[in-house]
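FORM 12-B: Structure-to-Sequence Request
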């Protein structure tokens, strides 16, 4: 289900996280204007900014389940996922904005359930759009990012399609009445949060600069993946077919004097020293910034990259 999540207060949430890890890349060509800082998606009191945020209330920095969100709960046995008859789906049927994503009791089973205590793994989202995330040869569940990611200024388009959450092993667990408060989710994806400032104003016969897209392009191979595999032992891995050279984020042709703020998701195999380019495409041309990661880019983390276009020259 497509939704747009307004994140007017999320900057304060990210910046307010108490985390000692701040990652600053070493300067290289043009890199003095783009610093990388890491903050965890997880806040102190919640699993993370996964669902709709209610804006303009006393709890404007809290995140909630949305009506229609679906969780898959798959039975596991002997290191494998069991067959389709042991796959269960639960849908949130509460009021959007009434339950934090760290809680959530208003889930309704879609189809049959099993009240017997068994071993399970839970994950979210569960969606027809990504092949119902069925167990592949009973060994793993596959989650794929959409081919096109979009982020209007200060919003994330369809956040649920670009974030994959999975639980710890749920041992001796009764799935008959799924209750989110009994499950702790982890985020598999890594996020890049881009701030692009100082788009050029109109000059002479040249119209004002419009931001069109942001692309990350791997210099070293196999560092960006568009999908991830989760096996029945609660371990993430990669499919070689999911490795991509580049990932693009569209900005809905953003223009204006305020900085653009947007988010891009990927499954990370970025290690310290790995190289990639950030390519900013505007109506005036492209800007390329070369980056060398100074540390591993971790899942469940947001890495902020700030770009000041007035300090860069267009590619030739």
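FORM 12-B RESPONSE
SEQUENCE OUT:
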């Amino acid at each position: 289900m497509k939704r747009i999540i307004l994140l007017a207060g999320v900057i304060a949430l990210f910046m307010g996280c108490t985390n000692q890890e701040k990652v600053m890349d070493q300067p290289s060509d043009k890199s003095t204007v783009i610093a990388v800082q890491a903050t965890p998606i997880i806040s102190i009191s919640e699993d993370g900014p996964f669902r709709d945020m209610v804006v303009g209330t006393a709890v404007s920095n809290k995140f909630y389940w949305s009506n229609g969100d679906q969780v898959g709960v798959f039975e596991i046995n002997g290191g494998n996922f069991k067959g389709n008859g042991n796959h269960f789906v639960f849908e949130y049927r509460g009021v959007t904005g009434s339950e934090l994503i760290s809680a959530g009791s208003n889930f309704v089973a879609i189809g049959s359930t099993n009240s017997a205590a068994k071993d399970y793994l839970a994950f979210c989202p569960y969606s027809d759009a990504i092949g119902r995330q069925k167990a592949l040869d009973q060994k793993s569940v596959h989650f794929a990012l959409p081919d096109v990611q979009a982020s209007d200024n200060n919003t994330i388009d369809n956040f649920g399609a670009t974030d994959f959450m999975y639980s710890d092993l749920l041992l001796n667990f009764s799935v008959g009445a799924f209750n989110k408060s009994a499950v702790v989710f982890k985020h598999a994806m890594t996020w890049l949060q881009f701030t692009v400032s100082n788009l050029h104003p109109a000059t002479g016969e040249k119209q004002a600069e419009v931001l069109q897209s942001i692309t990350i392009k791997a210099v070293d191979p196999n560092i960006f993946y568009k999908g991830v595999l989760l096996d029945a032992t609660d371990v993430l891995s990669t499919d070689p077919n999911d490795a991509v050279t580049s990932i693009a984020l569209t900005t809905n042709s953003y223009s204006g004097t305020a900085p653009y703020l947007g988010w891009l998701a990927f499954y990370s195999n970025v290690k310290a020293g790995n190289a990639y380019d950030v390519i900013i495409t505007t109506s005036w041309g492209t800007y390329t910034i070369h980056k060398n990661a100074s540390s591993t880019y971790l899942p469940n983390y947001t890495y902020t990259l700030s770009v000041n276009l007035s300090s860069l020259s267009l590619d030739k």
